[in-house]
Specification:
By secondary structure, the protein is of the alpha+beta class. Among the domains are: 120 residues, Lipocalin (Beta Barrel); 53 residues, no CATH class. Helix 4 runs antiparallel to helix 5. 9% of the residues are buried. It is found in: Membrane. Pfam families: TrbI. It comes from Caenispirillum bisanense.
Length: 356
């Protein structure tokens, strides 16, 4: 077989690999030499050598010093002596005593009186030295500005006060339809933003608090706003209450009252009257056209004309009555739920501190 393969190899034939030289096995993979520096841990440094502290010298007491005791406090000063008596007061007291002693007294009978009037010499009434005038503050200088004025107060702590210049932002929870007056029901406004005090960060009215309010239906034909007044607030979290508020509520821009979709009720006010007027006009027009087209039937034309005039008059009376009943219809204002509103207190609210 080897001879055949040699001939085939000379001719360049491999006979499908039968005469190919045997493949040498691949050399075995050799591992590199072990490198201790790749996995070894360096040795820790040597600990520093602590210096030995020098020995302390012995304590030798050479002298004992005694501090003198503190001197007692000085006694308080004696009060000043009382001022000398006022000579004018003494003289007036002497005269008063003399007059009191000189009053007549009843001695045994109604006709016998005895007068004990002491004799006063002029020397006894001679005043002594004039006392020094008391310390009187000098008069205040005349102010340059003499107009009507108002004096400010001292600084006020507003850490727990909601003053009348504050605005409380809220959202309307219940819609409003002005066909029913606020006396038959109330609306609820929920506070949507925390209200803090001016001084400090005291949370006075937390968001989520609710205000109970009433509204007034419009009573004029051209009205387009509803007057709303809040009379009670229920605080969130601790549920404290304030009643009798009379706080006015307005729209998001602070204008008084609420506004919404306004129905002027034009059709209800004038629709029936316009329809009756049109019917009356059509009847008169038809009667006039019928009477002008037929010249022979004068009697029938006159009767028809009289009937049309009577019907027109009755329609006019009905129209006037309908207008009288419907001309004063107030508009209907509808405010949707979720409308943003502003509430302004009518008086200062003092919020008490809640302690746990």
């Amino acid at each position: 077989m080897s001879a055949v393969c040699d001939v085939a190899l000379v001719l360049g034939l491999t006979l499908s690999g039968l005469c190919a030289p045997p493949a040498e096995p691949p050399p075995a993979a050799a591992l590199p030499e072990d490198d201790e520096a790749a996995w070894s841990v360096p040795a820790p440094p040597a600990p520093p050598v602590r210096e030995v502290a020098p020995p302390m010298p012995p304590v030798v007491i050479t002298k004992v010093v005694q501090m003198p005791a503190a001197a007692p406090p000085a006694p308080p000063p004696l009060p000043p002596p009382p001022p000398p008596p006022d000579p004018y007061r003494l003289a007036a007291q002497a005269v008063w005593n003399a007059r009191a002693a000189a009053r007549p007294t009843l001695d045994g009978s109604m006709s016998t009186y005895r007068s004990n009037v002491p004799t006063l010499s002029p020397a006894s009434l001679t005043p002594g030295p004039t006392p020094a005038p008391p310390d009187v503050a000098p008069p205040a200088p005349k102010p340059e500005y003499e107009g009507d004025r108002r004096v400010s107060s001292l600084p006020v702590d507003n850490s727990r006060i909601v003053t009348t210049d504050r605005y409380i932002t809220g959202v309307l929870e219940t819609g409003i339809n002005s066909q029913l007056d606020g006396s038959s029901g109330s609306i609820v406004i929920q506070v949507s933003r925390d209200v803090f005090g001016y001084h400090g960060r005291n949370l006075l009215i937390p968001k989520g608090s609710r205000l109970v309010c009433d509204y007034e239906s419009p009573d004029k034909i051209g009205a387009s706003r509803l007057a709303v007044s809040c009379n009670r607030v229920l605080m969130a979290e601790h549920r404290a209450e304030i009643i009798e508020l009379t706080a006015a509520a307005g729209d998001v821009q602070g204008r008084a009252g609420f506004t919404g979709e306004v129905d002027t009720r034009f059709g209800e006010r004038y629709g029936t009257a316009l329809m009756l007027t049109g019917i009356s006009t059509a009847v008169r027009l038809a009667t006039a056209m019928a009477s002008s087209g037929d010249k022979t039937a004068d009697t029938l034309a006159q009767a028809t004309d009289a009937g049309a005039e009577e019907m027109s008059t009755r329609f006019g009376e009905i129209t006037a009555s309908v207008l009288e009943q419907t001309v004063d219809l107030a508009p209907i204002i509808t405010v949707p739920q979720g409308t943003r509103v502003q509430i302004r207190p009518a008086a200062d609210w003092y919020i008490r501190e809640v302690t746990s």
